Fold:
Amino acid sequence: MQITSVNFLKSVAKVKDCPEETLPEVAVIGRSNVGKSSLINMLLGQNIAKASDKPWKTQLINYFLVNKNWYFVDLPWYWYAKSSLASRRNWIDESHDYFLERKPFIFVLVDGSIVPQKIDLEFMESLKEEELPFSIVVTKTDKANQKTVSQNMKLLKQQVQKTLGYLPEIILSSSVKKQWRDKILELIEMKI
Ligand SMILES: Nc1nc2c(ncn2[C@@H]2O[C@H](COP(=O)(O)OP(=O)(O)O)[C@@H](O)[C@H]2O)c(=O)[nH]1
Ligand SMILES: [Mg+2]
Structure:
């Protein structure tokens, strides 16, 4: 897919303020700092999503209108591994409500430079329980050496398979090296 136009549409705090559901939607979700905004910037070819080290700046749902025919959505939920069980349940429920209402194509982002995190597996399991299909994008594959990334990938595949009973599509990415951009855009084109 060629990106011919990108417009920042709006940021909203509540699902009720989301744009009319007339266009297909691709949503990225993942732990704070996993690389959601950077991935969007890399795929769209411009610094349009705020990428920052300050996660509290991005607690809104951000909509980008791409090629005038689909939305790319940067989602705010899904906090820290150390968040309390109650707050975890809360954002998991909020994100489910969003997904069930808007039915986006979902990318769950996981950090390829570290070993698989329990909170990521928990989140994927919760999506499965709601029968919400998703693909996994592995971010920051440039941040660790190749051997470490391969080991992390192997563990990820094993643990996801064990948790879900199947393996969703897993795609690698590096927003810094701008790798696998075409492949991810191809997948988006297929899904929207
Ligand atoms: N090395 C490396 N750093 C990345 C990559 N993607 C994001 N980052 C960095 O990770 C931090 C968080 O990225 P950001 O996109 O804001 O994450 P978000 O909170 O999930 O939106 C920033 O400092 C980014 O520069 C990547 O592919 N490789
Ligand atoms: Mg962000």
User: Anything to note?
Assistant: The first helix runs from residue 36 to 44. The pocket of guanosine-5'-diphosphate (ligand 1) is lined by residues 30, 32-38, 51-53, 55, 58, 139-140, 142-143, 174-176 (CB under 6 Å). The helical segments are 36-44, 85-102, 118-129, 146-164, 181-191. The first strand starts at residue 6 and ends at 12.
